[in-house]
Specification:
6-stranded mixed β-sheet; 8 helices
């Protein structure tokens, strides 16, 4: 029985090798770091990891990220494993063990690679990483990163290969199996008596159920073992065709990989010619293969969209593309950019008949519209034709460009760049299909003088973009260049929304509603006289709509920046459509039937089953790390950064592999800046997003994945961080500075106050000393000189002494008055001026007039200003007494706030100010003191006239 099983398996393998090709189409991934790959892994996040002869790399669908460590003694890597904490483990061909965490590669120093054989395997059992060594099992607890050895206890036995069988690690040496279970000593189980392995056999890492596999590369034999009992038994031995690579378990099938072919043990699947070593499936259902000669290979899961290739006479030329597609009773009517019109049968999914060809001189086909069941208007840039889809006959109607058409009863209404053309249906060679009463009076029509015949409404003034008959109001809706207009008989009016005209690009009919697409306000639904705005995707709510088209229950919106599909039964945009196969800008037209959706693109025609159109592809972006100031790598969310660390780069990744080039990110930075958190978009393939010179504040970075302008993420990825204010721009710094400044001002005030108090005390003391000591002494001299004069009579020397003493007493009195701080007020100054002038003038027989007007007689005045004002005044009065010869002297002192004016007038003989002013010391002294006061002195006088001296200054 066993012999028969072996023979059967042998013939299955030979048949599989000879006839099993062509079941998959493998694509080579470009830019892979190496074409010699030993192992691959799809991690829990969906990234593809490849271990190759130049190291280990991670692939995200766009680019490879390579990892290395300076401790490597060999750069060739294999044996990829992901633990429960997100680390990816591998070892090189010298058995050094490394793990990758947070985008860095670390060396496991606790493992002594010198005690291991080259190509030793390692496996993961729960949280324990287990490696085969010459000492037994090396165990690393991935939760604690603590390591130890579990000794075998048998001399001369060296383990090199192990596998996981249920909840234990199994190693093979000769005919003995060494079993490790967590928390138990290593046990030994012998192979049953039915066989004995060659010493050079290797235990494969792969296992399935109760089956393990042992390879004998020298003799090219693969053994199967059943490990369900304590006595492992050989279940089969199968010859291996070609050079043996590995055994892998892929999609619950055992694959044997050789240099020439990979095949399953059940004989139903094979992949020839790729020299495969490993296989894996990603989250999208794509199959990945590691090859020793082709690098990284992929077999993408069959797409939802399928390209329909033209055939026969309908084949599209290499420099042409499909522009329009329209559903008819005979199939899909397809028009190319260069004027080929073909018919496609959806069940055949090929173009099976070319109906007509527009000559190049007729221009480009712009639109195809239904006239009736058998005839369609073909509107080109230079003419209007009628196509019979049954016969393929193309009939010229007239030589002008028509943008849109509507047939009502026996009248056709055609929109031209020169206005609305009205023609009888007999002239259009079609039978009417609508039943309505719509007549435009002759008074509103102008005779059309060109060769097309008929009449033009609003001719040569307003361009027509779209024409549609409204069955509810039995009126004609015409989109002129100056707004959408409703026409019914003699009545015409503009259709408005919020008192604004609608500038419509195209219209579509559904039920009782007419959808009108505008250039600046989105989409509107017109139901009779009611006009409502249809809310579209909030990403482009007011985007310009170039055209719309009804396909079954859907309205396709061809917008300036994307394409949306409206469910006309609910007036809502369908979100999360199956992604388009090309960029939206390459899509020219769309159509639907009961089974499929069709897209006419510059890359060909694509078809998608309606049942798959709502199969939403979901993909969430991943933040690998944050780079601060291009130096600091951060992985933690919610970080706080210093104010000078305000250049932030987010390194994103998203494990999407099918149509990865069509995927990009939509992101924003909500917080202090930019204001409002406006959304932005990356370029396709861009994975880095950077913000520079951010201001202090709290921020939240948000990002979602976008494909064909549809968000395909379940929720935004969010990352929060804070940029703190600089120490000199914080409340506590401002508060501290304010307190320090306040203390300094207070201290300076107190110091200044103490100094002023000291000066006041000194001035008072000097004033008292001058008055009491020197004043009394000088007064005594004056008294004694008077007594001596009485006793001795007039004596020249005694007179000189008496005169000098009087002068000293007067000057001393002024000095004492100036020094005394009690006199540093405006009122005291004015009183002193009056006390000085009045006796002096009256003693000389001069009539004295003194008037003062003070707004604040208690206003303080500095001693220096007080002295200068007083001395200027004294000089002016002395000049009156000595030189004026006047009979009247008037003095005015006027003070308003901090401004002071002193005026001294006399009616004396006057003098020439220009001739003597510069040579009088008194005059010069007055001018100098006025300068010291930062004021102005004006002297007005003429010989034989009055004299006026005016001093103005601030006090």
């Amino acid at each position: 029985m066993l012999f028969a099983r072996k023979i059967l398996l042998f013939f299955l393998a030979v048949m599989l090798y000879c006839t099993g090709s062509g079941q998959r189409t493998l694509q080579q991934i470009p830019n892979c770091p190496s074409n010699e790959i030993y192992d691959l892994l799809v991690d829990k996040k969906g990234f593809i990891w490849v271990a190759h002869n130049l190291g280990v790399s991670r692939f995200d669908g766009v680019s490879f990220t390579n990892f290395s460590n300076p401790e490597e003694t060999s750069i060739s890597m294999t044996n990829l494993i992901e633990d429960n904490y997100g680390r990816v483990w591998c070892h090189n061909f010298n058995s050094q063990i490394f793990y990758i965490q947070n985008d860095k590669m670390y060396y496991l120093e606790a493992y002594d690679f010198r005690n291991s054989f080259n190509y030793s395997t390692m496996v993961l059992l729960g949280d324990e990483l287990i490696v085969a060594t010459s000492r037994g099992f090396f165990i690393c607890n991935t939760a604690t990163m603590k390591c130890h050895y579990e000794e075998i206890g048998v001399r001369g036995v060296n383990l090199s290969r192990i596998c996981i069988m249920h909840n234990m690690a199994v190693g093979l040496a000769k005919d003995s199996f060494f079993i490790y279970k967590k928390g138990a000593p290593v046990s030994i189980v012998k192979l049953d008596d039915s066989g004995r392995f060659d010493v050079r056999v290797t235990l494969e890492k792969a296992s399935l159920g109760n089956s393990m596999f042992v390879a004998d590369p020298r003799n090219r034999i693969l053994y199967g073992l059943n490990f369900s009992t304590n006595k492992p038994a050989i279940t089969f031995s199968l010859p291996v065709k070609g050079f043996f690579n590995t055994v892998t378990v892929f999609k619950q099938k055992v694959w044997v990989n050789t240099k020439n072919v990979s095949y399953t043990l059940d004989g139903f699947d094979s992949i020839p010619g790729y020299n495969i070593t490993s296989m894996a499936e990603d989250k999208e259902g794509n199959e990945w293969f590691a090859s020793l000669s082709k690098g990284l290979l992929v077999s993408f899961k069959p797409k939802g969209w399928r390209k329909i290739e033209p055939a026969g006479s309908a084949r599209i030329k290499p420099n042409d593309y499909i522009k329009l597609v329209t559903q008819t009773r005979m199939g899909l009517l397809v028009a190319s950019e260069q004027g080929d019109i073909s018919l496609m049968q959806p069940q055949d999914t090929i173009f099976d008949k070319q109906l007509a060809k527009m000559p190049p001189a007729y221009g480009t086909i712009e639109n195809v519209e239904r006239a009736n069941d058998s005839n369609y208007f073909v509107e080109s840039s230079k003419r209007l034709d009628l196509l019979n889809i049954a016969t393929g006959q193309l009939t010229l109607l007239f030589r002008e460009s028509v943008k849109s058409a509507a047939i009502v009863n026996n009248t056709g209404y055609l929109g031209l760049s020169a206005g609305l053309l009205v023609k009888n249906t007999d002239e259009l060679q079609i039978k009417p299909t609508a039943s309505a009463s719509l007549a435009i009076p002759d008074s509103l029509l102008a005779a059309n003088g060109n060769s097309t015949g008929g009449y033009l409404y609003r001719s040569r003034i307003y361009r027509v973009r779209s024409v549609m008959f409204d069955t509810v109001t039995q009126s004609l809706l015409v989109s002129f260049s100056d707004g959408l207009q409703r026409i019914k008989g003699p009545a015409t009016d503009y259709i408005t929304y919020s008192s604004q005209r609608l500038y419509v690009s195209s219209m579509a009919h559904f039920g009782n509603k007419i959808y009108a697409a505008t250039f600046n306000k989105g989409l509107f639904a017109i139901n009779g006289t009611q006009v409502t705005q249809v809310k579209a995707n909030d990403q482009y709510p007011l985007d310009a709509i170039v055209k719309i088209k009804r396909c079954n229950n859907h309205i396709w919106l061809f917008k300036a920046h994307n394409i949306e599909v409206l469910d006309a039964t609910a007036d809502t945009v369908i979100n999360n459509l199956y992604p388009f196969p090309v960029e939206f800008s390459a899509i020219n037209d769309a159509e639907e039937d009961s089974s499929n959706i069709y897209l006419a693109t510059t890359s060909g025609m694509f078809m998608l089953p309606v049942s798959k159109s709502l199969e939403v592809k979901k993909a969430d972006p991943l933040l690998l790390y944050t780079l601060v100031n291009n130096t600091d790598t951060v992985y933690k969310n919610g970080i706080s950064l210093a104010s000078n660390k305000n250049n932030i780069l987010f390194r994103l990744a998203i494990p999407v592999y099918e149509d990865a080039g069509l995927l990009h990110f939509k992101y924003r930075l909500a917080g202090a800046a930019p204001a409002g958190g406006e959304w932005y978009f990356t370029q396709s393939g861009q994975r880095d997003i950077q913000f520079n010179a951010l201001k202090p504040g709290d921020y939240t970075f948000q990002v979602v994945a976008v494909q064909n302008n549809e968000v395909i993420s379940t929720a935004p990825l969010q990352y929060s961080f804070t940029i703190t204010r600089p120490w000199f721009n914080t409340w506590w710094f401002y508060t501290t500075v304010l307190i320090i400044i306040s203390l300094l001002f207070f201290g300076f005030y107190r110091y200044r106050l103490r100094q002023l108090m000291k000066i006041e005390k000194i001035r008072r003391k000097i004033s008292a000393d001058l008055h009491d000591d020197i004043g009394s002494t000088v007064s005594s001299i004056n008294v004694y000189s008077q007594l001596a004069k009485r006793e001795q009579g007039d004596n020249e020397y005694i007179g000189i002494i008496q005169s000098g003493t009087v002068d000293i007493i007067n000057n001393l009195d002024d000095l004492v008055w100036n020094i005394n701080p009690r006199n540093d007020v405006m009122g005291q100054l004015v009183n002193r001026m009056q006390l000085f002038a009045e006796p002096l003038l009256q003693d000389r027989g001069i009539q004295f007039i003194f008037k003062s007007s003070l707004s604040d007689k208690n206003m303080l005045i500095s001693p220096n200003k007080k002295t200068n004002i007083y001395l200027v005044f004294k000089e002016a009065v002395n000049n009156v007494v000595k030189h004026s010869g006047s009979s009247v002297c008037s003095i005015y002192v006027i003070q308003r706030n901090n401004k002071l004016r002193v005026i001294v007038e006399d009616n004396g003989r006057g003098f020439d100010v220009s001739s003597i002013g510069r040579h009088r010391n008194g005059m010069n002294n007055m001018r100098q003191r006025a300068n010291d006061l930062k004021g102005q002195i004006v002297i007005k006088s003429m010989p034989g006239q009055r004299t006026e001296i005016r001093l103005s200054c601030r006090v």
